[in-house]
Amino acid sequence: MERSSLNNSTQIEEYKQFLDRTSLGSLTKRASNLLTLKLTNQLAPFQLTANHWIVLSCLWRSDGQPVTYIARQIQQIGGTLTGVLDRMEKRKLVVRRRDKQDRRIWRVFLTEKGSQLLNELPRLVRQIWDQALEEISKDEKERFSQLIDHCLKNLIPEYSCSLPECSNELPPELSRILPPKSLGYRMKVLTLALSRRFSEVLSPYEVTTVQWVALCRLWRQEGITTMEIGSHVDMVGGTLTGLLDRMEERGLVSRRVDEQDKRRILVFLTARGKELYQVLPPLALATTGEVTKGLKPSDIDFMKDFLQRMLTALESK
């Protein structure tokens, strides 16, 4: 069966970045997700998660932080502190105490066991960054960091990763990889903020951000297998089936058995799915414009190139 796709003449050049996942938002999300995966793998032998890493990092920077401060850092990457401190306290990594001056405030302190992890975990996390940035110069890293901060301010004007005065000075190379000032943390915050903003934009059309990604793949070429859709949206099994079920219920796609291979299911756009190509990509462009407001085209190109190089390095091993 010959696969069909939207007529190339209808594919406005600016839309292609969304169809082939080379938009700034897509590249940032892919790089952030890959960094999170590698971080998760490094922490797994210690039975720790990314949320534990954030709590420990905040306390290594300055011990005795208020619970509310640490909770805000975790909330910014889509997590909650509920249960995290309970488990860490049970494992004798931290302890909570009331503030001596204000009994309404609870503070979190490292135990000796939690303090000792400073000698092990940052070294492992640094290996991830050494791999990700091995071909990138110091000046390029600094420029990218500043541009990420600019994009964050555009989306979250009130955003700040400032910390109270540290009781102990950390070496600069260590400070750079510890949340909430680390590049990885700020990329994650930007990714989630952009996803929330775009979800709001898509909401009137009853399309989710994941369905948007699937539509982008089908706008590029329809009549592809469910496996190809899954690879594009990073889903498998029942989760992918649920996604396609909901898209079919909303009249966006249809599934058909491949006439040449009855074992394969192919996914096609409906008329409604095709119509949205004229509606949603312009909205994605406008949202990207909000994020990059004040940046020059050369800045955006630099960020995309930086992220592509980071992805290539991370995916090479």
Structural descriptors:
three-stranded antiparallel β-sheet; 16 helices; single chain; mainly alpha
Low-pLDDT runs: none
What is the helical fraction, as a range of percent? 55-70%
What is the H/E order? Answer: HHHEHHEEHHHHHHEHHEEHHH
Largest sheet: 3 strands, antiparallel
Radius of gyration using CA atoms only: 22 Å
Question: How big a fraction of the residues is strand?
Answer: 5-15%
Number of helices: 16
Q: What would the principal axes of the Cα set say about the shape?
A: globular
Which structural category fits the helices and strands? Answer: mainly alpha
Placed side by side, the strands forming the largest sheet appear as 1-3-2
Q: How would you state the average pLDDT, rounded?
A: 91
Q: What is the tally of beta strands? A: 6
| First-last Cα distance | 36 Å
Q: Could you please describe the fold and organization of this structure?
A:
The chain is built from 16 helices and 6 strands. The protein has helices at 16-19, 24-43, 50-61, 67-75, 84-90, 112-116, 121-132, 138-155, 172-175, 183-202, 209-220, 226-233, 237-249, 271-275, 280-291, 297-315, and strands at 65-66, 94-98, 106-110, 224-225, 253-257, 265-269. The strands form 2 sheets. It has a 3-stranded antiparallel β-sheet with strand order 1-3-2. A 3-stranded antiparallel β-sheet has the order 4-6-5. Strand 2 and strand 3 form a beta hairpin. The longest helix is centred in the first third of the chain and has 20 residues, at 24-43. It is globular, with a radius of gyration of 22 Å.
